[in-house]
Amino acid sequence: MNLPQPITGADKRIVRVLILEDEPMIALGIEDILLDAGFAIAGVATKLENALALIESGACDAAIVDSNLAGVCADPAAMALAARGLPCIVLSGYSQEQLKSPFVGARFLQKPCRPEVLIETLTAILPKHERAVCSRVIDRQSDFTSSGETPLTHQLNLAIADIAAGSVSMRRG
Questions:
Q1: Residue 111, CB-side half-sphere exposure with 13 Å CA sphere
Q2: Whole-number mean pLDDT of the chain?
Q3: Does 164 or 132 have the greater pLDDT score?
Q4: Any idea what the Cα angle at residue 9 is, between residues 3 and 13, rounded to 5°?
Q5: Is 67 exposed, middle or buried (0-12, 13-18, 19+ CB in 10 A)?
Q6: Residue 134 has pLDDT above 60, yes or no
Q7: Cα–Cα distance measured from residue 76 to residue 84, given in angstroms and rounded to the nearest whole number
Q8: Which of 11, 63, 95, 98 has the largest count of CB atoms under 10 Å?
Q9: pTM of the model
Q10: For residues 109 and 148, what is the distance between their CA atoms, to the nearest angstrom?
Q11: 3-state helix, strand, coil in the chain (%, to 5)
Q12: Cβ–Cβ under 8 Å, residues 72 and 50
């Protein structure tokens, strides 16, 4: 089995991605996709306060942000990332037109999204010197079945579709 090499930046440090997502199954799926692609996980924040603390700590190089964290708008997280010059992807069940101004100009993907699209988009938002070393991730087509999904990502995409349709919620209480 060929394990992916860590994705590194110009300073040979593994690219660390922060995940801001309040749905545990979706966060776990994103984490799995990123780890499989060779990225490091800087942290997973399910609440805005945790997200802001992780951003302020300088522990990440990029972020994947759900625009709504447990009913709280993630605008402050988007502003904190922008203030630090950190690239981010907005991965949301909302349409791009529904997003508020701090997200305007950020790369946008609508849930559910295919793993290879997420990795391609993440690679594209990285600074140019980091993008070159990430290009090998896009060429890993042999890791996917002919439909473009591994069994795990197929289950994840089904769960995302159910959550987006409102038929399932992972929230407690």
A1: 28
A2: 76
A3: 164
A4: 75
A5: buried
A6: no
A7: 12
A8: 63
A9: 0.70
A10: 17
A11: 45, 15, 40
A12: no
- What are the φ/ψ torsions at residue 20 (nearest 5 degrees)? -110, 100
pLDDT tens column, 80-105: 998 998 999 999 888 877 776 666 66
Structure token pair of residue 71: 């009913």
130 has pLDDT over 60: no
Q: What is the H or E stretch that residue 120 is in?
A: helix 115-125
Reference 89, options 67, 111, 107; nearest CA is: 107
Q: For residues 69 and 46, is the Cβ–Cβ distance under 8 A?
A: yes
CB 90 within 8 A of CB 103: yes
Q: What's the token pair of residue 57?
A: 């700590």
Look up tokens 């440090």; give the residue: 13
* Token reading at 147: 């439909």
